[in-house]
Amino acid sequence: MRITQQFSPGRPTLSFEFFPPKDEIGFWDLYRTVESLKPLHPTYVSVTYGSGGSDRRQTLDLVTRIKSDIGIESMAHLTCMGATRAELGTVVDDLKRHGIENVLALRGDRPADQVPATPEADEFRYASELVAFIRARSDMCIAAACYPEGHPEAGSLTADLEHLLRKVDAGVDFLITQLFFDNRHFYRFRERALRAGIKVPIVAGIMPILSVKQIRRFTEMCGASIPPDLLNRIESVEDDAEAVRHLGMYHATQQCLQLIEQEAAGIHFYTLNRSTATRAIYQHIKAMVRPGGPAASPPVAQASGDMVKRGDAVPSPERIS
Fold this sequence. Notes:
Blueprint: E1 13-18, H1 24-36, E2 44-47, H2 56-70, E3 74-79, H3 85-97, E4 102-106, H4 127-137, E5 141-146, H5 157-169, E6 174-177, H6 183-195, E7 202-206, H7 212-222, H8 228-236, H9 241-261, E8 266-270, H10 275-288, E9 289-290, E10 293-294
Parallel strand pairs: 1-2, 1-8, 2-3, 3-4, 4-5, 5-6, 6-7, 7-8
Antiparallel strand pairs: 9-10
Helix pairs in contact: 1-2, 4-5, 8-9, 9-10
């Protein structure tokens, strides 16, 4: 099933992202984790692709098993940096042969210690070139990344949007955003994209804050900002792992509810292979979405660390003020 068949006004897609473990034990642990999500009926699950294609076989194995054995629609990530046309053609053909209809086309990054084996390995410089390559070779549903706060390497928001437009014009069917913690970035980006003529669905990428150290590292890598009031609340309980987790889950839950109210095409959870928090958030927002459209969510409360209640799967807005 092509993921684009699932986009419908008032019915946001809900999905999870995982990365391939490095060993067989981790592989089967992750398989069971994904299998446990089936009763939640996610729209799809995506599996990442290592730098330079280092996890190619694991990605193919996982997306194939998720779709054929577990029965959840799957999407494979595919990166082009450091790959030749022949190598990427083989991957695309393998995905099609195994019944995979959806792919997330990314530039990716070359590992620091990797030197291109041939001049052809530097053939692809941008994700737009990969999108065009896949589109010319297949009728797969192609997703691509976008950046509400701008790509870290873009000189400006305008330049970033120009790159995105080229990518969409090359054959993108829908977009998934980089993580963000302030929904206003998403709304502004969506408006800019629409004004630029980008009309494909835009799915919001959400990652709950589960540790201060982790989120600092991620925001430095991807250029996402944390609202000062949220950062202050998180840092005030930095030494209390459970309080940080609850605050992070609460904020992500409120983000999702507001995004659904504002008609985001979907929510894509970056799980870092830790599905407990995102599963709880998913269940909470599913309960708030009426068949046929989103339910009104409670107003966002300003949570403070000393008011986080222990033992709740997701701290409820009624209990945190």
